[in-house]
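My hope is that you will study the protein record below before we discuss the fold together.
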Amino acid sequence: MASQLLSHARRVAFAGTTGITGLATYKAQTDPVHIFFDLDHTILCSICPLPKDLNESEVTNNSKGLPAYLPSPPQLEHFDQIDDDFPFDSKTMEPNTRTYFRPGARMALEVCSLFGVLHVYTAAQESYTNNIMRELDPERKLFTKVLHRDEYPAIVKNGKDLSVAIDRMDRAILFDDKVSNFKPQKYQNGVGVIPFTSKQVEKCLNSSDQERWEAYLAEMKEMARLVGISFWSSVHFSGDVRRVVSWFHGWSEK
């Protein structure tokens, strides 16, 4: 009897999972959720001027008592660029900014693209945004729209109005580290993201392996949270993402 009950429970669980996955696929094709991602401090962190003291830590596992077989954390993906919001040498055109991608950000974007339509919404200028897009989405297959302050200058003072890109607020989510950017939609469509700042970058670079792993996992956990919010918003029975978003408006450093 016990084995029969267990077998039945497994079938029910599998059917439930299959049903949710099928619903997500159906929604993605017929009524997708539109997911807007901020750039700075949400999926990346840019540091200007070029940091000279942020290098991969040389501290070994054993120095902190970690098992010798535990691998070192992966390197923090980054690239150098010119951010023309800040001084730079126009003769040498040497980069003045280093941009670090948040651990787990690329994977989160790829997963979200399976059931949603992705957009970039940033208060940065066009030149800087284009630099990011060349690294993040070189073939322009990931993001449908890229919105920046040169095209929508009101972003800077008034926040990010999603209606400039989509007319259905029941299917739109904005992930941003600045909650003030949610004001145009009366904070109903925004989810606050724990900021990925230079402090977090330093933790991922200039620490012992144990501390670096902890920092990496914390950032990946935050990205996984955004994926979960996006997924459940896409399949929520009400069809209105704001019902799910209302549970996650802000963030805390707990």
